[in-house]
Amino acid sequence: xxxHPLRMxxxxxxxxxxxxxxxxxxxxxxADTVRRIREGSLEKGDAVAAARLAGIMAAKKTAxxxxxxxxxxxxxxxxxxxxxxxxxxxxxxxxxxxxxxxVEMEALVAVSAAALTLYDMTKSIDPGMTxxxxxxxxxxxxxxxDWRRGEGRxxxxx
Length: 158
Known about the structure:
By secondary structure, the protein is of the alpha+beta class. The chain has one domain: Alpha-Beta Plaits (2-Layer Sandwich), CATH 3.30.70. It is about 30% helix and about 30% strand. The chain contains four helices and six strands; from the N terminus they run βαααββαβββ. It has helices at about 30-40, 45-60, 60-65, 105-120, and strands at about 15-30, 75-85, 90-100, 130-140, 145-150, 150-155. Helix 2 runs antiparallel to helix 4 (about 105-120). The longest helix has 19 residues, at about 105-120.
């Protein structure tokens, strides 16, 4: 079997276009842990604020974390933390940029860092937590067109 050497893909010939990616993930924990995250009553402080900030910072550092990602100028990164059930915390990151390549990895890294931050801030009271379902939900822009989970390709750009 022939292997190919690792390389960063050349995107220099691609047109610059607006790019948006939204990713999500979940932290599953005891109901009391989730309550304490929501209330901000953890020993380390406000876990929601820390997780949002961690996600934003991580998105900006994606090219340093994922070896073959292009460093991208990001127009915005938004990380939201929602409490959807007694034992669950939902994390969503939306990343926007104008560039030659997508921001899917930046959104996924933002969700991952936010989830890890929540875990770090609560591991002393609930070490059995689970980080789950980190996934791309949708992306727009680029020559391959838009994509949404459950729908696949939606509208290729011309």
